[in-house]
Amino acid sequence: MAAFTAAIEMGAEMIETDVRRTHAGRIVLAHDPLRGRRGDALPGLADLVRLAAGRVALDVELKEPGYVADVLAELVPQPPGLLMTSFLPEVVAEIRALDPAVDTGLIFHPDDRDDLLERATDCGAATVVAHVNALDAELADAMLENGRPLMVWTVNKRRQLATVMANPAVTHIVTDVPDIALAIRTA
Question: The whole model's pTM is what?
Answer without folding.
Answer: 0.96
